[in-house]
UniProtKB/TrEMBL annotation:
PROSITE patterns referenced in this protein's UniProt entry, alphabetically: ADH_SHORT (PS00061)
Superkingdom in the source lineage: Bacteria
Pfam families: adh_short_C2
Protein name, per record: SDR family oxidoreductase
Domain Ketoreductase positions: 8-187
Organism: Maritimibacter dapengensis
InterPro entries referenced in this protein's UniProt entry, alphabetically: KR_dom, NAD(P)-bd_dom_sf, Sc_DH/Rdtase_CS, SDR, SDR_fam
Stated family: Belongs to the short-chain dehydrogenases/reductases (SDR) family.
Length: 276
């Protein structure tokens, strides 16, 4: 039995953990060849090994998506390893929350950089490869569709108190999505976005004392949603619970499958019916 993505080259940023890892595994289950990225090499290698254990191919491109030259290195890894690129999922990111009067310039810029500037640079670096491939295929009379899936959030579609930086970045990526759908339609590239609602990950699974943190480039970032607040949120979700990373990955896959070849410039909310 063959997969719907057999031989397709997929680059997934932030795929060492959480939702990104599940996206990588889902695409691999359909036959895609993966370029795995994570800030830390350890989780990236673990995901790559899990992909290989499924019988699919994977290589690792570790490092921060915000570092100078990363975008070019990410694209080059896919081209050098597998001969091209077919799917880009801009997933990497984290939250660094505060109300506006307490938010530092560093907090603002860090979140804009990872959620908005990094995807822009990755897409810019991919353009020469995609353009050349599209011209070759058009000359041969072939219609080959490629996919870009940008990750947004209901914070970007409706705003969220305490997340002005994240909400702005996630709203911005929707603008990137609509613009790139127009620019890259001539290349047969479908550009869409998935806006996540409440999904159970390390960024939402806070401790009761509110002291959960993650380490990002030597910074300890407070994360997590208070369990009582998360419980209240669950009661507001029409489907009755928060989503799983596997379900989040399924929403991304919808825009990677060939059935979505005539859908572009759109976003779907994966949130169990919950909207802000």
């Amino acid at each position: 039995m063959t997969g719907k993505l057999d031989g397709r080259v997929a680059l997934v940023s932030g795929s060492g953990r959480g939702i990104g890892r599940e996206i990588a595994l889902k695409l691999a289950s359909e036959g895609a060849r993966l370029v795995i990225n994570d800030l830390d090499a350890g989780p990236a290698n673990e995901t790559a090994e899990a992909v290989r254990a499924m019988g699919a191919e994977a290589v690792v491109c570790a490092g921060s998506v915000t570092e100078v030259g990363f975008a070019e290195r990410f694209i080059k890894t896919g081209v050098d390893s597998f001969g091209g690129l077919d799917i880009i999922v801009n997933n990497a990111g984290y939250t660094w929350d505060s109300v506006v009067q307490k938010m530092s310039d560093e907090q603002w810029q860090a979140i804009i950089d990872v959620h908005l500037t990094a995807p822009f640079k990755i897409l810019r670096a991919a353009q020469p490869v995609i353009s050349a491939k599209a011209k070759e295929e058009a000359a041969a009379g072939q219609e080959v569709f490629r996919k870009v899936v940008n990750i947004s959030s209901i914070a970007g579609t409706g705003g969220n108190a305490g997340q002005i930086n994240y909400s702005a970045a996630k709203a911005g990526i929707l603008g990137v999505t609509r613009t790139m759908a127009k620019e890259w339609g001539r290349y047969k590239v479908n550009v869409n976005a998935v806006a996540f609602g409440p999904i159970r990950t390390r960024l939402t699974e806070g401790s009761a004392d509110g002291d959960s943190t993650i380490k990002v480039e030597e910074k300890e970032i407070k994360v997590g949603v208070n369990p009582d607040l998360l419980s209240q949120m669950e009661r507001m979700i029409p489907l009755g619970r928060v989503g799983t990373p596997e379900e989040a990955a399924g929403a991304v896959y919808l825009f990677c499958a060939p059935e979505s070849n005539f859908i572009s410039g759109q976003h779907v909310i994966c949130g169990g019916g919950f909207v802000i």
